[in-house]
Amino acid sequence: MNQNSDFPNWLPLLVNKLVELINHTFHTSIALDWTALAPVTLVVWAVIVFSLIALVAQVAVIFLVLMERKILAWLTQRKGPNRVGPWGALQTLADGVKLLFKEDIVPEGANKFLFMMAPAVFFLPAFVFFGLIPFTDKLLAVSLPAGALFVFAISSISVLGLVLAGWASNNKYSLLGGMRSAAQAISYEIPLVMAVLATVLFSGSMNIADIVRAQQGPFWNWYGILLTPLSLLIFFISSLAEVNRVPFDLPEAESELVSGYNTEYTGMKFALFFLAEYAALFAMSGLTVAFFVGGYYSPFGTFLIDLLTPHHETLTGVMSSVYQFGIQCEMLFWFMLKTYLFIFLAMWVRGTLPRLKPDQLMGFSWKFLIPLSIINVFAVAVEKYVMVSDGRSVLTMVPILSIQNNNIGSWFAWIVGVSVVFMAFFMLMSDMLTKKLKARLARR
Amino acid sequence: MSTLQIPGVYTEQGLKTEDLVVNIGPQHPSTHGVLRLITTLNGEVVKDMVPVIGYLHRSKEKMAESRSYFQYQPTIDRVEYLSSFFDHSVFVSGIESIAKLKVPKRVKYIRMITMELNRISSHLLWFGTFLLDLGATSTLFYAFREREEIFKLFEDLTGARMMYNYYRFGGVNADLPVGWIEQCREFVQSFPAKIDEYETIVTKNPIFLDRTVGIGLLDFDTCMRYGVTGPSIRATGIPMDLRKDAPYLCYDEVKFDVPVGTHGDVFDRYLVRMAEMRESVKIILQCLDQIPGGDTANVIAKTKEVEAAKEAAKAAGEDPKAVPGVDPDWLSVGQKINLLTYKPPAGEVYHVCESPRGMLGCHMISDGTAKAYRVKWRGASFSNLSVLPELMIGKLYPDLMAIFGSLDVILPEVDR
Question: Could you give all domains of chain B from N- to C-terminal order, each with its CATH number?
């Protein structure tokens, strides 16, 4: 992008001073080249993209509510919403309009200011997420050097909203729900960050855009598929807890706490909680995809693009722009597909599993997930030291070389080998699980 | 060591902790009706629990004294609305034994079939809501899918899905519809596969095991002290089942096992109920094979045959009464009595049966008039509920849903 010389240069200087200060304070060196971008471009681009993304996210979230109801209906042999609009597509809008017209009740004895603030405190962080997720390589509002850290700092704030709601409602069920959510968030953020640490180790950057860029290529280059599937598993489980989904939906456990922290909320305040939950689910799935499943990259590498447009290097002028736009659309498609896959997984889990107890929830995190994630970080460090050269794992070099040399035999051998290792792993796991269940039944 | 006291700043000594008293219910998603539990919580640990009942009291026992036996019958359905065939069976058998009415065998078999089907439907509802209390939503819909099949059978038979009012003194309201036996057999034969389906999704689920294994341990002594019966006592390893111990109707003519547990925890109560559904399937299949007269079409054909034979005998100038009639065991409406003004002789009887929730009893005193002098119900849920505080004290609050759900309490039966 062009240097805009008309613009006063105090802003980049200020930012540079700030970055210097941060570097000095934390003894780190955040590589940041803010001066390369014109500040006005930077800010305007960020604002435009974020507004666009927030708008799209709003629609996506509204769609998610319908999707969840349809999927649960499908899992439980029902039809789901099918009266408002085609396939019940407008059902969520109708529900939203209904909530708008509901009376806004503030319970007696509630702290009115905090009661009003809580939904906002819960709602805002869920949407800040969207500014940090790289939907494509261009469609990214803010590319923060420490984005991976910033995301989890923000997600901790949303828990504050739940605790506030629980405290300010002057309701015992709400209070219990708020307390549970605080305990839960503290426990599950640790494995969440530890799992991301693995990808940070591989990519050598905390910038989410850089982490995605480091996974460029077909699916064997993605961190969560071959290099550290365990990190992906830990991250997915912890993110379910982070966004209060089944089986970790204790803060709003309906059979115990009636509705938990949002028991006393009505109308739009309730709608904010409701929307923010789905927004957080969407954002967490997006982050899972960005960190572990190759972000916006196609699982087939450039294979499909090469097949469809073999001579794209020769394109010029408008056609080149059209081609670039097509590439962006393709990236967005893959990103959304993968994100919705993880959202579907979360909904599937919701349709299947019962809820944990608080002590089991804590035990699972502190006794199992956190030790596992620490071991995982060490394992990843060793893996990076031993097996990775030129940013590519030895595991992934085999298929690349064999495809380059047209050696289909070794490619198949690699596929078979990897499948055998995975199957052995899963059989071992299921064997362990069976033994654990038997021991549990015998221990009574 | 003295601590520095700064005004407005709490030191550790100054901090007070308080127990939280939570009124769970009477309106609460998992109290299955209007039960109120005054619960003292210390964090998530239950320190004390006092159940308050009576929100659903409709004076069912007093109602019996102000209306005739037949008029009272429809209100029995509302005592335990999930398995009302059992309440009817106890009430009707009581009158039959006071009045020494002879009940045809076909009626007894119809009652057994309907009661076992009702046991399955009741256990299915328990299964769905129990898992719902634990946080799993899908199983409810799976259970209701099969429950709907049973309700269709009941609707064909009695015209109602839940409030049947089908049994009569010495008989049933009407014979089975033509082809009902085949429909019933079809459903019952397909049902064990459905139980397998439920067990696949639930029984080995690690989270389900974590929530249920070793929770809410009941032993035989506690059961005896509180009068706990039904699957809850069988889960402790005691094969107490009135169908085996004191066979009523024709339960001595069918073969079935009494499933028992080993430890008496929530998981065992779950296993016992699942096994009981399989046993009920066995009983129904045997009943469908053994029922005197078989399908109703068969009975109708036989009746017509007898009538034709009598006509022929009359035409031939012989005594039509000499022609053997339909086997009395094949009849479905036993005594031709005027139900509205029926007066059983004076007498007193206490009748019990094994309902899905345990021992269901009805103590009835008749003074020879058309109205009962006194009717007293013994609801299994009442005794089963009374053991809840003892099981809950010292446990975590979420265990309440597992333990209370596993006792399978139904509030209308507690309050009556």
Answer: 50-292+327-415 (1.10.645.10)
Mention every residue, 6+ apart, whose C-beta is less than 8 A from residue B409.
B32, B35, B357, B381, B384, B385, B388
Give pLDDT tens digits for B163-198: 888 888 888 888 888 889 999 999 999 999 999 988
Label the pairing between strands B347-355 and B358-366. Answer: antiparallel
Poorest-pLDDT segment among A65-74, A128-137, B270-279: A128-137
Could you tell me if B400 and B51 are in contact, meaning their C-beta atoms sit under 8 angstroms apart? Answer: no
State the DSSP code for A364: I
Task: Choose the closest CB to B132 out of A255, A353, A444.
Answer: A255
How far lies A342's CA from each of A232, A240, B69, in Å? 11, 10, 62
Identify the residue whose tokens are 């035999």: A409
Omega within 30 of 0 (cis) for the link into B26: yes
Query: From CA A181, how far away is CA B199, in angstroms rounded?
Result: 32
- Asked whether the predicted pLDDT for residue B120 surpasses 90, the reply is yes
Angstrom distance (rounded) from CA B366 to CA B64:
11
Q: What is the pLDDT of residue A2?
A: 43
Confidence tier at A317 by pLDDT (50, 70, 90) = low
Which residue, among B19, B134, B208, B395, would best test binding to A if mutated, counting the most A CBs under 10 Å from its CB?
B134
Look at residue B150 in the predicted model and tell me its pLDDT: 92
Q: Rounded mean pLDDT of chain B?
A: 85
Same domain flag for A54 and A33: no
The torsion angles phi and psi of B393, rounded to 5 degrees, stand at -65, 125
In angstroms, the CA B334 to CA A79 distance is: 46
A34 — pLDDT class (breaks 50, 70, 90): very low
Cβ–Cβ under 8 Å, residues B80 and B379: yes
Residue of chain B with shortest Cα separation from A249 = B135
Give the per-residue pLDDT at B275: 92
Length of chain B: 416
Whether residue A319 is found in the same domain as residue A267: yes
pLDDT at position B277: 92
Of B22, B30, B41, which has the smallest distance from its Cβ to A255's Cβ?
Answer: B30
Can you list the pairs that A24-32 forms with residues at least 24 positions away whose Cβ atoms lie under 8 Å? A30/A145, A30/A146, A31/A145, A32/A145
Average pLDDT over residues B238-263: 88
Flag if A77 and B145 touch (Cβ within 8 Å): yes
Q: Do residues A112 and A3 both lie within one domain?
A: no
Query: Tokens 């335990």 identify what position?
Result: B80
Contact A351 B138 (CB under 8 A): yes
Total length of chain A: 444
Q: From chain B, which residues contact A within 8 Å (Cβ)?
A: 20, 22, 28-30, 41, 44, 131-138, 140-142, 145, 201, 204-211, 213-214, 263, 265, 267, 396-401
Environment class of A297 (CB within 10 Å of its CB; exposed 0-12, middle 13-18, buried 19+): buried
pTM for the model stands at: 0.82
Q: Is B40 in contact with B21 (CB distance < 8 Å)? A: yes
Domain assignment of residue A399, yes or no: no
Q: Are B198 and B143 in contact (CB under 8 A)?
A: yes
pLDDT at A242: 86
Cβ pair B209:A437 closer than 8 A = yes
pLDDT top residue among A412 and B146: B146
All residues of chain B having their beta carbon less than 8 Å from the beta carbon of residue A444 are: 213-214, 263, 265
Q: What backbone torsions phi and psi does residue B48 show, to the nearest 5 degrees?
A: -155, 150
Q: What is the spatial distance between Cα B317 and Cα B195, in angstroms, rounded to a whole number?
A: 60
* Judgement on whether residues A297 and A423 belong to the same structural domain of the protein: no
- Selecting from A75, A350, A441 the residue whose C-beta is nearest the C-beta of B213 gives A441
| Upper half-sphere CA count for residue A187 (Cβ side, 13 Å) | 23
Domain of A21, in residue numbers: 1-37
